[in-house]
Amino acid sequence: MNNTVKESNSDSEVRARNLYLTESMEETFKKYFPKSHCYIKVVNIIGEFIQVNLYLGSGEEDWSGGYEQNDCLNCKFIIHDIDKEENYYELEKCASSFHVEPWEHESYLAYSTVKVPYRKLKGNADKIIKGFDKYCKKLKDSLVMQLGNFKGNHEDVARKNLVL
């Protein structure tokens, strides 16, 4: 009986830490992209992890056909809770790029891709948030440098949602 109570307390502590991490990451993203949309959620599929999707558009009106997958920004992360007892996480990139007008040597393509560098990060929640903050700053700087190179309505969305 006593073990059951301890496990449920541990589960509630993990939920509270995950909530802190998701809310802090959303605040961090909104600091650099206040008009843009982000999707940060705890997911339970063969284990628990936090899914992070970042968008430049603010909603369906900014996405071609109303699909968030048509956003020019392609940034996706997964946060694994490596050690629940020690509050130790890993922030891993799945995708980190955005689309612009094709470069001259890639004129046969619909878009060219600008990659935003990122290295896998391990540590406590505060270290993950600090690393994510650095990434968001680097992402914004990269997007601002490419203003004028976006294709179609992506240029309008970038100019509308990037607060300079």
How would you describe what is shown here?
With 164 residues, the protein is α+β, with helices and mostly antiparallel strands. Strand 1 (38-44) and strand 2 (48-54) form a beta hairpin. The protein has helices spanning 2-32, 125-145, 153-161; strands spanning 38-44, 48-54, 73-83, 88-100, 112-115, 121-123. The radius of gyration is 18 Å and the shape is elongated. It is built from 3 helices and 6 strands, in the order αββββββαα. The longest helix has 31 residues, at 2-32. It starts with a helix and ends with a helix. Helix content is 37%, strand content 27%. The protein has one domain. Mean pLDDT is 87; it is low at 1-9. Helix 1 (2-32) packs parallel to helix 2. Strands 1, 2, 3, 4, 5 and 6 form a 6-stranded antiparallel β-sheet that branches.
- Give the overall average pLDDT: 87
The number of distinct helices, counting runs of at least 4 residues, comes to 3
Distance between the termini: 57 Å
The low-confidence parts are: 1-9
Q: Find the count of extended strands (DSSP E, 2+ residues).
A: 6
Seen as an oligomer or otherwise, the chain set is: single chain
What is the total domain count?
A: 1
The portion of residues assigned to helices is 25-40%
Keywords:
alpha+beta; disordered N terminus; 3 helices; 6 strands; elongated; 164 residues; single chain; 6-stranded antiparallel beta sheet
Concise synopsis of the structure shown:
This protein is an alpha+beta fold and 164 residues long.
List the helices and strands and how they pair.
Elements: H1 2-32, E1 38-44, E2 48-54, E3 73-83, E4 88-100, E5 112-115, E6 121-123, H2 125-145, H3 153-161
Antiparallel strand pairs: 1-2, 2-3, 3-4, 4-5, 4-6
